[in-house]
Amino acid sequence: MTTNIVDRLHVENKAKINQTLLCEAFMVSHHPQWHWLRSQIGKEQQVDISIQFHYDNRDPLNIRNRPETGGGARLDIGCYALWVADWLGASSQYEAHGYQICRNGVDVQTSGTCWFDQGIQLHFDVSMRRSRFQQAVVQTQKGCWVIPRPFNPLAESVVWTMDSSGIADEERFVANQYERMIAAFCSQIDSGSVTDLSSSLRIAQWSDEIVKTFERRVLR
Predict the structure, then answer these.
(1) pLDDT grade, residue 149 (50/70/90)?
(2) Of 156, 169, 196, 212, which is closest to residue 8 (Cα–Cα)?
(3) 22 contacts 12 by C-beta, under 8 angstroms
(4) Pairing mode, if any, of strands 144-147 and 93-103?
(5) What structural domains does the chain harbor?
(6) Separation CA 140–CA 166 (nearest Å)
């Protein structure tokens, strides 16, 4: 995920000039589990989001471990944590604190907290040096929901509604988010939709702020 804001604005303007539709492939935005979750949260509620997304990739030749190809946990999977905040209503970030653990020019782990003016708080931990795991927990004053596979769901996925005793209810979905993404893109082309990268630009800007504000720890 490229985070250069100027480049993104340039690409968006070129797409509009050439009447070409351009969309970022955030496949997760097409999965019904996220649409259902957003429908459960009132617009005036404070929202606390906790994201964990990990995998183990130590191959020095892999694109994710090479700084010249945009490697690093922040760009590869950190963007999904920021996407959740955007999806649930965040539009302006006012503070961010955390740290990045870097090796060979890329962050192998980025962890921290971002605060948004819309009453949304995001805690996230993404790593390229742990066993594969992902989870999203979303809490408000009135509810708590857990998505055990938020970003790479199986053919059948589930969202758990939690209470003080554990899982109080579960909502199940059957969907292929990649197929839905392509179908939505084709539908937008047919309807003459105009390129709008505003969401991508917000996420890119927040990602850039992480680099500026998070503590950097370099491993030897």
Answers:
(1) very high
(2) 196
(3) yes
(4) unpaired
(5) 31-175+200-218 (3.30.360.10)
(6) 16
DSSP string, the chain: ----HHHHHHHHHHHHHTT-------GGGGSHHHHHHHHHS-TTS-EEEEEEEEEE---TTSGGG-GGGT-SHIIIIIHHHHHHHHHTT---EEEEEEEEEEETTEEEEEEEEEEETTTEEEEEEEESEEEEEEEEEEE-SS-EEEESSSSS--SEEEEEEEETTEEEEEEEEE--HHHHHHHHHHHHHHHTPPP--HHHHHHHHHHHHHHHHSEEEE--
Is 0.90 surpassed by the pTM of this model? Answer: yes
Q: The tokens 């459960």 sit on which residue?
A: 40
15 closest CA partner among 189, 181, 179? 189
Cα separation, 53 vs 83, in Å, equals 13
> Do 49 and 120 contact (CB within 8 A), yes or no?
yes
At 115 the pLDDT is 98
Q: Distance between CA atoms of 195 and 199, rounded to whole angstroms?
A: 11
- Sheet containing strand 129-139, edge to edge, reads 166-174, 156-163, 144-147, 129-139, 47-56, 120-127, 106-116, 93-103, 215-218
User: Using an 8 Å Cβ cutoff, are 123 and 83 in contact?
Assistant: no
Taking residues 115-135, report their average pLDDT: 97
Tokens 């996925």 locate to: 157
